[in-house]
Amino acid sequence: MKITSADFVMSNAKVAQCPAEPLPEYAFIGRSNVGKSSLINMLVQRKGLAKTSGRPGKTQHINHFKINQNWFLVDLPGYGYARVSKTAKKTFQKYITNYFLERTQLMCAFVLVDIRLEAQKIDLEFMRWMGTSEIPFCIIFTKADKIGPQVITRQVLDYEKKLLEDGWESMPQHFVTSSAAHQGREDLLAYIDDINKSFYAQKR
């Protein structure tokens, strides 16, 4: 897929106020400081489209970007550690939940995890909730440039082991990426493109 346009549409905290256009939608979410904004900017090749910050918890709204005028990329607040009040955290965690349960045009969620770390309890719990709620998702391993190929393989296999122990029948679709090295970009965009083609074919 070639990205020809990537435009910010809106930022809000209510699912009812999300764009009304019936376009396929893909949401990106992960723990704070996992490299989500950098990944989004790498995917669309627009430096600064999604705001990056050294302060975890910067994203606190549902941010919609229209890509190629025919699908939405959604940047969601991170879960886990964030330098915000407990009240504020509960508020935006609530609308994250509402978004996933109510946004019918969501095609797939991409759950980002730092490949350098062992499987984190909070990530496994979030994926379990996604599975129980029957929300389609893939795993995106980030920051692959920070470790070697053998370590990458070991980390992915360890994650698969943890997921199977947690009750999954198989490892979800996953992608190994690096924003710095542009690794995984083509595979991820091709995956989205295939879903989009099926979506629009059904509309004919």
Number of E-state strands:
7
CATH superfamily: P-loop containing nucleotide triphosphate hydrolases
CATH topology category name? Rossmann fold
Q: Could you give a short account of the major beta sheet?
A: 7 strands, mixed
Query: Helicity level, as a percent range?
Result: 25-40%
- The CATH architecture is 3-Layer(aba) Sandwich
Q: Return residue spans where pLDDT drops below 50 for at least 5 consecutive residues.
A: 52-58
Number of domains: 1
Kindly report the spatial arrangement of strands forming the biggest sheet.
1-3-4-2-5-6-7
**Classification by helices and strands:** alpha/beta
CATH class: Alpha Beta
Mean pLDDT: 88
**How widely separated are the two ends?**
21 Å
CA-based gyration radius: 16 Å
Q: Give the number of helices.
A: 5
Principal-axes geometry comes out as globular
H/E order of the elements?
EEHEEHEHEHEH
Q: Report strand %.
A: 15-25%
Lay out the secondary structure:
Layout: E1 6-12, E2 25-30, H1 36-44, E3 62-67, E4 71-75, H2 86-102, E5 106-114, H3 121-132, E6 137-142, H4 149-165, E7 174-176, H5 185-203
Parallel strand pairs: 2-4, 2-5, 5-6, 6-7
Antiparallel strand pairs: 1-3, 3-4
Tell me about this structure.
With 204 residues, this protein is of the alpha/beta class. It has a 7-stranded mixed beta sheet with strand order 1-3-4-2-5-6-7, sandwiched between helices. It has helices at residues 36-44, 86-102, 121-132, 149-165, 185-203; strands at 6-12, 25-30, 62-67, 71-75, 106-114, 137-142, 174-176. Helix 4 (149-165) links the parallel strand 6 (137-142) and strand 7 (174-176).
